[in-house]
C-alpha cells in the first residue's frame, strides 16, 4: 500500500469530520435562533420591548451567518463524500455576502451591549427607549457595515480558500486580513468595556437594592460566557497571524479549523442569548420539581391541626348620614 495514499485518505477523512462537525454546530445555531425569534413573536406580539427586538436582531444575524457556513459546508461535504471537484463560482458575491453578515453580526452585538448599558446604567433617560431611536440606530449600524465592507470589495480582498472552500478574506491577503481583524478586535473591546462598566456599576449599587444587584449579577455571568464565546475565534486567528508572520505560511487545515471554531462560537453565543432570557427559560427549560417527603408532610399537617383556631367575630355597624356631624356631611 502506498503511504502517500494513506496520507491523502487520512486528510480526506479529517476534512470530512471537520465539515460534519461544522455543519452540526451551525445547524444548532440556526435552530436556536429560529426558536428564539418565533417564541418572542408569539409571546410579545404586538407589544415588543426594545431589548427583545435587539436580541431578535442578534439571533437573526447569527442565524444568517451560520446559514451561509452551513450551506457551504453541506455543498463541500457532498462533493468530498463523492470525490467530486468543488466549483468556486460566484466567489466574489458569496464572499461579499459573507463579509457583510460577519461585520453586521458584530455590529449588532455592539448595539446589544450599548442597549444593556442604557438599561442598567442610564435607565432614567428616556431618549433612547423608543422604537424610533432603535430604527435610527439600526440605520446607522447598516450604513457603517456597508462602509466597512466596501474597502474589502474594492481592494479585491476576498479570496477562495483551496482547502476550506470558503470565499472570504484569507491570510494570503495580509492587509485585508489585518483590516478585518482590526474591525473584530474593536468590536470585542467595545463589548467588553461596556459589560465591565456595567459590572462595576452593579457592584457599587447601594445595599437597599439587593434584588436588582442579584438579578444583574446573574445576567452578567451569562454575558461573560457570551464574551468568551466571541473571543475564542479571535484568539485562534491571532495565533494563526503570528504563525504566518514567523514562518510566512500557514497549515493547510488551519482555515477549516477556524471555520469549526467560528461555528462553535456562534452556536454558543446564540444559546447564551436564549438562556439569558428568563421568560424563555421558564417556558422551555424543565424546572426541577421539589420532592416532598410524605412523613415530613404528615408532620406538618399535624402541627397545623394542633394550632388553636382564633375566633373572629364580625360586628356589623350601620351609620346614618343624619347622625354624623355637619362638618363630615359637607366633606
UniProtKB/TrEMBL annotation:
Q: Which UniProt keywords apply?
A: Membrane, Transmembrane, Transmembrane helix
Which InterPro entries has this protein been placed in?
GPCR_Rhodpsn_7TM
Q: Where in the cell is it found?
A: Membrane
Chief location: membrane
Give the transmembrane region(s).
20-41, 53-72, 92-114, 134-158, 178-203, 223-247, 253-276
Q: Which domain of life is it from?
A: Eukaryota
Protein name from the UniProt record: G-protein coupled receptors family 1 profile domain-containing protein
The scientific name of the source species is: Adineta ricciae
